Amino acid sequence: MPLQVGWKHFGFDEVTLKSDTFCASLSGLRIVQLSDLHLGKDVKVDYLSTLVEKINKLKPDLLLFSGDILQTSALRVKEQLDCFKKLEIPSYYVSGNHDIFYGTKHLKSIMQDNGVICLDNKIVEIDIKGSILQLVGLSDRYGFIRGIKRPIKELFSRLNPKLSTILLTHQPKDISHVNGFRIDIQLSGHTHGGQIYPFSIIVKYFQPYISGLYRYENTLLYVCRGVGYWGVNVRYKVSSEIPVFTIN
Protein backbone atom coordinates (compact mmCIF):
# COMPACT_ATOMS: atom_id res chain seq x y z
CA MET A 1 0.00 0.00 0.00
CA PRO A 2 2.07 2.97 -1.26
CA LEU A 3 -0.32 5.66 0.07
CA GLN A 4 -1.44 5.69 3.70
CA VAL A 5 -3.80 8.35 5.04
CA GLY A 6 -5.13 8.91 8.55
CA TRP A 7 -5.50 6.91 11.72
CA LYS A 8 -6.86 3.52 10.66
CA HIS A 9 -3.74 1.40 10.25
CA PHE A 10 -2.21 -1.22 12.54
CA GLY A 11 1.17 -2.00 11.05
CA PHE A 12 2.19 -4.95 13.22
CA ASP A 13 5.33 -6.56 11.84
CA GLU A 14 7.00 -9.67 13.26
CA VAL A 15 10.77 -9.10 13.52
CA THR A 16 13.36 -11.59 14.75
CA LEU A 17 16.44 -10.10 16.41
CA LYS A 18 19.39 -12.47 16.54
CA SER A 19 21.84 -11.21 19.14
CA ASP A 20 25.18 -12.91 19.73
CA THR A 21 25.38 -11.45 23.24
CA PHE A 22 21.85 -11.77 24.59
CA CYS A 23 21.44 -14.23 27.47
CA ALA A 24 20.20 -17.65 26.30
CA SER A 25 17.72 -17.81 29.20
CA LEU A 26 15.87 -14.85 27.63
CA SER A 27 15.64 -16.47 24.20
CA GLY A 28 12.14 -16.07 22.83
CA LEU A 29 11.55 -12.75 24.62
CA ARG A 30 8.78 -10.85 22.82
CA ILE A 31 8.66 -7.05 22.82
CA VAL A 32 6.28 -4.64 21.11
CA GLN A 33 7.68 -1.22 20.21
CA LEU A 34 5.44 1.83 19.81
CA SER A 35 7.10 4.93 18.43
CA ASP A 36 6.13 8.40 17.24
CA LEU A 37 2.43 8.34 18.03
CA HIS A 38 2.25 12.15 17.86
CA LEU A 39 -1.08 12.19 19.65
CA GLY A 40 -3.35 15.14 19.02
CA LYS A 41 -7.07 15.69 19.37
CA ASP A 42 -7.56 14.27 15.86
CA VAL A 43 -6.49 10.80 17.03
CA LYS A 44 -9.65 8.92 17.94
CA VAL A 45 -9.94 7.12 21.27
CA ASP A 46 -11.49 4.17 19.42
CA TYR A 47 -8.30 3.76 17.39
CA LEU A 48 -6.11 3.67 20.49
CA SER A 49 -8.48 1.33 22.33
CA THR A 50 -8.31 -1.10 19.41
CA LEU A 51 -4.52 -0.74 19.31
CA VAL A 52 -4.29 -1.68 22.99
CA GLU A 53 -6.62 -4.65 22.47
CA LYS A 54 -4.48 -5.92 19.60
CA ILE A 55 -1.30 -5.60 21.67
CA ASN A 56 -2.84 -7.47 24.59
CA LYS A 57 -3.90 -10.30 22.28
CA LEU A 58 -0.28 -10.73 21.17
CA LYS A 59 0.68 -11.44 24.80
CA PRO A 60 4.20 -9.95 24.57
CA ASP A 61 6.52 -9.82 27.57
CA LEU A 62 7.06 -6.07 27.33
CA LEU A 63 5.87 -2.89 25.61
CA LEU A 64 8.35 -0.08 24.95
CA PHE A 65 7.44 3.43 23.72
CA SER A 66 10.40 5.10 22.03
CA GLY A 67 9.29 8.71 22.26
CA ASP A 68 7.23 11.42 20.57
CA ILE A 69 4.01 10.35 22.19
CA LEU A 70 2.65 13.91 22.06
CA GLN A 71 1.74 16.42 19.37
CA THR A 72 0.04 18.73 21.89
CA SER A 73 -0.11 19.15 25.66
CA ALA A 74 -0.68 15.87 27.51
CA LEU A 75 -3.66 17.45 29.28
CA ARG A 76 -5.41 17.96 25.93
CA VAL A 77 -5.10 14.27 25.03
CA LYS A 78 -5.63 12.76 28.47
CA GLU A 79 -8.58 10.72 27.19
CA GLN A 80 -6.33 9.24 24.51
CA LEU A 81 -3.49 8.55 26.95
CA ASP A 82 -5.90 6.89 29.37
CA CYS A 83 -6.40 4.10 26.81
CA PHE A 84 -3.02 2.72 27.89
CA LYS A 85 -4.46 1.91 31.30
CA LYS A 86 -5.85 -1.29 29.78
CA LEU A 87 -2.42 -2.60 28.80
CA GLU A 88 -1.85 -5.99 30.41
CA ILE A 89 1.96 -6.06 30.20
CA PRO A 90 4.86 -4.12 31.77
CA SER A 91 5.21 -0.88 29.79
CA TYR A 92 7.89 1.82 29.70
CA TYR A 93 8.54 4.97 27.68
CA VAL A 94 11.20 7.59 27.01
CA SER A 95 10.56 11.15 25.92
CA GLY A 96 11.12 12.36 22.38
CA ASN A 97 11.83 15.85 21.10
CA HIS A 98 8.11 16.61 20.67
CA ASP A 99 7.40 15.46 24.21
CA ILE A 100 10.10 17.82 25.44
CA PHE A 101 8.53 20.68 23.48
CA TYR A 102 4.96 20.07 24.70
CA GLY A 103 5.99 19.31 28.28
CA THR A 104 7.03 16.14 30.07
CA LYS A 105 5.59 16.86 33.53
CA HIS A 106 1.93 16.11 32.78
CA LEU A 107 2.86 13.33 30.39
CA LYS A 108 4.83 11.56 33.10
CA SER A 109 2.03 11.93 35.63
CA ILE A 110 -0.71 10.66 33.30
CA MET A 111 1.36 7.79 31.93
CA GLN A 112 2.36 6.73 35.44
CA ASP A 113 -1.30 6.74 36.52
CA ASN A 114 -1.95 4.44 33.57
CA GLY A 115 0.85 2.06 34.54
CA VAL A 116 3.37 3.19 31.90
CA ILE A 117 6.68 4.09 33.56
CA CYS A 118 9.04 6.85 32.43
CA LEU A 119 12.53 5.50 31.79
CA ASP A 120 14.23 8.84 31.08
CA ASN A 121 17.83 8.57 32.34
CA LYS A 122 17.02 5.53 34.46
CA ILE A 123 17.92 1.86 34.76
CA VAL A 124 15.46 -0.86 35.73
CA GLU A 125 15.85 -4.61 36.11
CA ILE A 126 12.85 -6.72 35.14
CA ASP A 127 12.26 -10.34 36.09
CA ILE A 128 10.90 -12.12 33.03
CA LYS A 129 10.19 -15.83 33.41
CA GLY A 130 12.89 -16.16 36.05
CA SER A 131 15.58 -14.25 34.11
CA ILE A 132 16.64 -10.64 34.60
CA LEU A 133 16.49 -8.12 31.76
CA GLN A 134 18.14 -4.72 32.19
CA LEU A 135 16.50 -1.68 30.62
CA VAL A 136 18.15 1.73 30.36
CA GLY A 137 16.49 4.83 28.93
CA LEU A 138 17.67 8.23 27.75
CA SER A 139 15.62 11.39 27.57
CA ASP A 140 15.73 13.12 24.20
CA ARG A 141 19.00 14.71 23.14
CA TYR A 142 17.25 18.10 22.71
CA GLY A 143 16.24 18.18 26.38
CA PHE A 144 18.95 20.76 27.04
CA ILE A 145 16.53 23.34 25.59
CA ARG A 146 14.41 22.77 28.72
CA GLY A 147 17.42 22.43 31.03
CA ILE A 148 17.20 18.61 31.09
CA LYS A 149 20.60 17.00 31.45
CA ARG A 150 21.58 13.55 30.20
CA PRO A 151 24.34 12.10 32.42
CA ILE A 152 25.04 9.41 29.83
CA LYS A 153 28.46 8.13 30.96
CA GLU A 154 27.47 8.23 34.63
CA LEU A 155 24.25 6.38 33.84
CA PHE A 156 25.84 3.75 31.60
CA SER A 157 28.64 3.16 34.10
CA ARG A 158 25.98 1.87 36.53
CA LEU A 159 24.86 -0.84 34.12
CA ASN A 160 25.47 -4.43 35.19
CA PRO A 161 27.63 -5.89 32.39
CA LYS A 162 26.48 -9.40 33.28
CA LEU A 163 22.88 -8.66 32.29
CA SER A 164 21.28 -8.55 28.85
CA THR A 165 20.57 -4.88 28.22
CA ILE A 166 18.18 -2.92 26.01
CA LEU A 167 18.65 0.82 25.51
CA LEU A 168 15.46 2.78 24.81
CA THR A 169 16.12 6.19 23.31
CA HIS A 170 14.19 8.29 20.82
CA GLN A 171 16.92 9.26 18.37
CA PRO A 172 18.99 6.62 16.55
CA LYS A 173 22.11 8.80 16.67
CA ASP A 174 22.42 7.98 20.38
CA ILE A 175 24.02 4.72 19.26
CA SER A 176 27.29 6.68 19.29
CA HIS A 177 27.22 6.60 23.13
CA VAL A 178 27.23 2.81 23.56
CA ASN A 179 30.97 2.37 23.06
CA GLY A 180 32.57 0.54 25.98
CA PHE A 181 29.29 -0.55 27.55
CA ARG A 182 27.26 -3.72 27.27
CA ILE A 183 24.17 -2.68 25.40
CA ASP A 184 22.88 -5.59 23.37
CA ILE A 185 20.01 -3.82 21.63
CA GLN A 186 18.97 -0.20 21.08
CA LEU A 187 15.38 0.64 20.10
CA SER A 188 14.71 4.07 18.58
CA GLY A 189 12.34 5.97 16.31
CA HIS A 190 12.25 9.68 15.41
CA THR A 191 12.81 9.43 11.64
CA HIS A 192 9.38 8.09 10.57
CA GLY A 193 11.45 6.35 7.90
CA GLY A 194 11.19 9.65 6.04
CA GLN A 195 7.34 9.44 6.02
CA ILE A 196 6.87 10.69 2.45
CA TYR A 197 8.84 9.61 -0.60
CA PRO A 198 10.98 11.18 -2.09
CA PHE A 199 11.52 13.29 1.06
CA SER A 200 12.72 10.05 2.66
CA ILE A 201 15.77 10.12 0.39
CA ILE A 202 16.73 13.57 1.69
CA VAL A 203 16.27 12.47 5.32
CA LYS A 204 18.98 9.82 4.81
CA TYR A 205 21.56 12.59 4.47
CA PHE A 206 20.78 13.80 8.01
CA GLN A 207 19.88 10.46 9.60
CA PRO A 208 22.39 7.68 8.87
CA TYR A 209 20.03 5.21 10.58
CA ILE A 210 16.61 5.85 9.06
CA SER A 211 14.65 2.60 9.21
CA GLY A 212 15.05 -1.06 10.13
CA LEU A 213 17.90 -3.09 11.57
CA TYR A 214 21.55 -2.05 11.86
CA ARG A 215 24.61 -3.35 13.68
CA TYR A 216 26.93 -0.96 15.50
CA GLU A 217 29.89 -2.87 16.92
CA ASN A 218 28.27 -5.38 19.34
CA THR A 219 24.92 -3.58 19.50
CA LEU A 220 21.86 -4.23 17.36
CA LEU A 221 20.00 -1.01 16.52
CA TYR A 222 16.40 -1.07 15.34
CA VAL A 223 14.86 2.15 14.02
CA CYS A 224 11.06 2.02 13.94
CA ARG A 225 9.13 3.96 11.28
CA GLY A 226 6.50 4.74 13.91
CA VAL A 227 2.73 4.82 14.10
CA GLY A 228 1.78 8.45 13.60
CA TYR A 229 2.48 11.44 11.43
CA TRP A 230 4.22 14.78 11.54
CA GLY A 231 3.02 17.71 9.47
CA VAL A 232 0.29 15.98 7.47
CA ASN A 233 -1.50 12.71 8.20
CA VAL A 234 -0.09 11.08 5.10
CA ARG A 235 2.61 8.51 4.38
CA TYR A 236 3.73 7.67 0.88
CA LYS A 237 5.82 4.57 0.19
CA VAL A 238 6.78 4.64 3.91
CA SER A 239 4.11 2.77 5.82
CA SER A 240 3.59 2.93 9.59
CA GLU A 241 5.15 0.19 11.69
CA ILE A 242 4.63 -1.56 15.02
CA PRO A 243 7.49 -4.03 15.42
CA VAL A 244 6.82 -7.21 17.40
CA PHE A 245 10.29 -8.48 18.27
CA THR A 246 11.25 -12.01 19.12
CA ILE A 247 14.80 -12.05 20.48
CA ASN A 248 16.95 -15.15 19.90
Give descriptors for this structure.
six-stranded mixed beta sheet, 248 residues, alpha/beta, 6 helices, Purple Acid Phosphatase, chain A, domain 2
Structure description:
The protein is an alpha/beta fold. The protein has a single domain, classed as Purple Acid Phosphatase, chain A, domain 2 (4-Layer Sandwich), CATH 3.60.21. It is built from 6 helices and 14 strands. The chain has helices at residues 45-58, 78-81, 97-102, 104-113, 152-156, 199-203; strands at residues 3-5, 12-17, 29-34, 62-65, 91-93, 116-118, 122-128, 131-138, 164-169, 185-188, 212-216, 219-223, 234-236, 242-247. A 6-stranded mixed beta sheet has the order 2-14-3-4-5-6. A hairpin with a 2-residue loop joins strand 11 and strand 12 (219-223). It is globular.
Concise summary:
The chain is of the alpha/beta class and 248 residues long.
Q: CA-to-CA gap between the ends? A: 30 Å
Helices, by number, come to 6
Helix content: 10-25%
Cα shape: globular
For the biggest β-sheet, the strand order reads 2-14-3-4-5-6
What's the CATH superfamily, by name?
Answer: Metallo-dependent phosphatases
Count of extended strands:
14
The SSE order reads EEEHEHEHHEEEHEEHEEEE
What's the CATH class label? Alpha Beta
Q: How confident overall, as mean pLDDT?
A: 95
Radius of gyration: 17 Å
Integer count of domains = 1
**Biggest sheet descriptor:** 6 strands, mixed
Strand content: 25-35%
The CATH architecture is 4-Layer Sandwich
- What is the structural class? alpha/beta
Uncertain segments are: none
